[in-house]
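Following up on my earlier thread - several people asked me to post the actual chain instead of describing it. Fair enough. Here it is, all 149 residues.
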Amino acid sequence: MRKIQLLTVMMFSLCAVMGSVHAADDNLNQKKLLAQAFFEVRPVGEAADAAIAQIAATKPEAERAIFIKKMRVNMDYAHLESEMTTALVNTYSADEIKAMTAFYGSPLGKSIMEKQGDFQTAVSNILASMLDQAFMKATYGNKGLQSRP
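Reply from S.P.:
Thanks for posting it. Predicted structure:
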């Protein structure tokens, strides 16, 4: 009798574990589908191309077009989307992915996305300068360092 009870408890435990694994798989699959919907609203390729354009802006104007073309040829967009999908589903809940998709799919979200590159360009130089100053001071102290404008 004792063995039957123990076996019954073990079977229920196994079923509970299997049920939670199945629920986790369902949630992961749901989040992957939500990630696909998110990337329809905010395509990975567009984000990568915007980053390439920012890098290209540091090149002489005569070299930019060929640089952009070479960068795009050497980008593995499918791998990037796969990695971004993994990061998205591991970082955010299903509700958060839904909310981001709704926001970035809205007119306001699209407007913000369009301006994001300009904003980053506007602050990137000062941020890099300040990080450089902070790094130098943290590493070497104030000896011989002059403040940058």
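The two ends are 83 Å apart (CA to CA). That should answer part of your original question.
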